[in-house]
Amino acid sequence: MSIEQAKAQVAKIQQSAKTGRWKQEKQQVVITDKAKEKMNELFETLEAIFPAWRVSMKSDAAISNVKLLWTEEFIQHKLDTGENLNIEQGIRLAKASESDFFPSIGKFISWCHEDGGLTGENEALERFNEAKPPLTYIEQVTRSRCGYKAKRMPQEKGDRLFLKIFREVKASSTVQDRTLMIEHKPEEKTIFTRKENQGEINQSGVNGLKKLLK
């Protein structure tokens, strides 16, 4: 076999491997009729919770595309983690969100993962999106690793990236979480005094200065 033939054979094998991997990846997510039915039920519930859902889904085609995306993400999460999302908790936090607008897939998945309190990943994501200071060290590390990139992505992709890195940092044995100290500067207040009391205030200051100089 000549060198040219050998190179051609290697190229063929590499291309075959790439094609095989592509087919395998495409076959990983299989959407069943049961999954479609469950997603339809979830969307009916969320549409009732968020009356302004039509703002982000203005046509039947748009609704179908979003449902497809959500279904694929839910299945992929199961394949990646081996765990089902806590849909009931996601719905509960959706009701508590006090928003009229339909959430992104990243937002809803974060609700399904929410571990409660101000240190949960959903709260961390909200603070990140609203440019509020981080409350925990894990949150701070997450921002340092992906904040710049996430802010320059579309909202849903940015949310997914942030939550992905947040979970990776949280699961890392090398990162120990702790609450960050937040400095609160006292507000400057102007004290208005009656004119007849000003002499007394001035004398009090003079007396205090004399004590310091003794």
Largest sheet: none
Approximately how much beta-strand content do the residues carry?
Answer: under 5%
**Mean pLDDT value:** 75
Work out the number of β strands: 0
The SSE string, one letter per element, is: HHHHHHHHH
- Rg from alpha-carbon coordinates: 28 Å
Number of distinct helices = 9
Query: How many domains, as an integer?
Result: 2
- Class by SSE composition: mainly alpha
Tell me the span between the first and last alpha carbons. 104 Å
Overall shape: it is globular
Low-confidence stretches: 17-27, 183-198
Q: What percent of residues adopt helix (DSSP H or I)?
A: 55-70%
Describe the protein's architecture and organization:
The chain has 2 domains: 25-114, no CATH class; 117-182, no CATH class. It is 67% helix and 0% strand. It contains 9 helices and no strands. It has helices at 3-28, 33-49, 60-81, 87-95, 105-113, 121-129, 137-151, 155-171, 195-213. The longest helix has 26 residues, at 3-28. It is globular.
